[in-house]
Amino acid sequence: MTRTLFEKLWEIHEVALFDNGESLIRIDRVFLHERTGSIALQGLEEKGRSVANPKHVFCTMDHIVDTKPGRSDSTQMPSGKDFITATRNSARRADIELFDLDSQFQGIVHVISPELGIALPGSTVVCPDSHTCTLGGIGALAWGIGSSEAEHAMATNTLRVKKPKTLRVNFEGALAPSVTAKDMILHLISCFGSDGGAGCACEFAGPAVRELSIEERMTLCNMAVEFSAFTGLVAVDEKTIEYSSNRKFSPKAHLIAAAIDHWRSLKSDENAVFDNEITICCNDIKPTVTWGTSPQHALSIDAFIPSPLHIENAETKESWSRALDYMDLMPETPITSIKIDCAFIGSCTNSRIGDLRKAAAFLRGKKVSPWVKAVCVPGSTQVKKEAEKEGLDEVFTAAGFEWRESGCSMCFYAGGETFGPNKRVISTTNRNFEGRQGPGTRTHLASPLTVVASACSGYICSAEN
Amino acid sequence: MEPFKTFRGVGAPLLRENIDTDAIIPSREMQKVAKSGLSAGLFAGWRYKDPISRQINPEFVLNKTDYQNTQIILAGKNFGCGSSREHAVWALKEFGIKAVIAPSFGRIFLGNCIRNCILPISLPGDQLKELISATEIDPQKFLIQVDLLSQCIEVVGLVKFNFEFDQASKEILLEGLDPISLTERSSREIINFEELDRENRPWIYL
Fold first, then answer.
1. Top-tier CATH class for A22-163+242-258
2. Which residues of B touch A308 (CB under 8 A)?
3. Domains assigned to chain B
4. Which residue in chain B has the smallest CA separation from A143?
5. Are A64 and A16 in contact (CB under 8 A)?
6. Are A451 and A375 spatial neighbours (Cβ–Cβ below 8 Å)?
7. Domain ranges of chain A
8. CB distance from A160 to chain B under 8 Å?
9. Fewest Cβ atoms closer than 10 Å to its Cβ: which of A409, B3, B42, B72?
10. What is the pTM of this model?
11. pLDDT (tens digit, 9 = 90+) per residue, B114-147?
């Protein structure tokens, strides 16, 4: 009987199947951060429970920490320090490894988890953070959970989960040079809606996905949650094996051969049957940008802002009108006529070294528009150091970008970092919700290439123009 | 956890699609490492004209006299999408919300509801609208009755719908079970599984 990649991963980790339809799934790694992980550790303590296997639980400081150079425990959000110190103390008491502010391995949880080999192909990884699905890019079965479920995973090494349905998205054809994984996922969500993958384990496949680097596959899987998927997944190939073989927590020398043998089996069988399949022709994808307040409000860069007048469904009409109002945009005007105030490169979606290299290659010898405030926040301290070794920081700063310490920063407002009310931001992040980047801040999601091109022109535009 | 009990309450319509957890509780409202003290921040971006001064927005449904003591939110599809923050559910619960009725929910939000004894009920859009029509003339008088055991919601004498509900979640809610204690009953199976798994995938065990 043929099986999908997801079914293989599920079977490997299924401890028990209960009569009520739930499975007990073995969890290989739990990752925490100071925003939601602190409360999970505290919750366990309050219930008098302990972490069953502290060696399999990790924690980082990313969500609330300041990213300005010379940072300390203090943040722009007055209570931010409480989260940082509470997390530090809880992590110490639980005896779990913490990548603290001063650690050379500190960074955004979903950037450092594969970077350090904590998430591995075929491993189950959970984190009280919705973008945990990012790790599907290396063929890990990873999904976001709440703080109570994180307590469950830490106390028992398992989670009770109902097996999701499977969906395969086939990306056929090839991408044009200025089109990236970010454009692929925004395009998919704009075509099928922000609930288009509802509850599914969604495998991204096809020739265009095989061509992507591991980092780009992580970008693709990162926004699976914006598609309402249970998680995103990409089959393991030689690129994955090379990526995951030589990391800090990768299998040791005497185990690596067996691990690689196992990893090579982590792909869907040729005739595996999915509950649903979608095919996207990549030749049709252009650089894609959001105009509204949901990731599904995305359009090709050469399109026009849509008008709610032509919409029949009352709820959609209302949501488009609200979105246009919040975003302060006029229907039926070109996307490329939108003047921006700020540009942001960062977040678990697009802050890895490959993203920074692409952005810097475009920026070399160019200047950010005089009216644009531009900020680049590397995804991890290791990414930052590598970029500095390659001189990318100088390219960014010479062009007019601020160069910061690693963290989630302006992806959202947890640490109080924001461009401010009514500011219009072109951003490599993953959510354009109302107020996500701070009260009244207006977000346009795009790829790093589109962000740097727009930063230079002062208007939303693609790198090819 | 307290078992879920049948109740009647005021239902307030908030029929936007994709109401995300950032909207339910903005990040800036999560000020303590605690599960409490969150209700004042519930829907802060909409409930207040200015979230800092807390000047009330009289247009927002939960601020209207007709919808005082709301216990049920009637929402558009994909309610609770976005961030995994359980604070969204803690804020709703502290505010007094016992059930949310919507065509669909964000997956993590749904799981968080179950673990905090809030009932997430999926109901098709047309039935949801009938429910709202039945209550909106006088929401304080036409209360919605929510019965999980029989999987039924009703405005007595006006409308009555059955809803589907996951069996495992139903057990947890009706019996007030603690999922960790439940799983601890399987500890022998977990140990046996790990012994075998350690042989098959030794690199996983640090």
1. alpha beta
2. none
3. 7-166 (3.20.19.10), 176-206 (no CATH)
4. B108
5. no
6. no
7. 22-163+242-258, 288-457
8. yes
9. B3
10. 0.97
11. 999 999 999 999 999 999 999 999 999 999 999 9
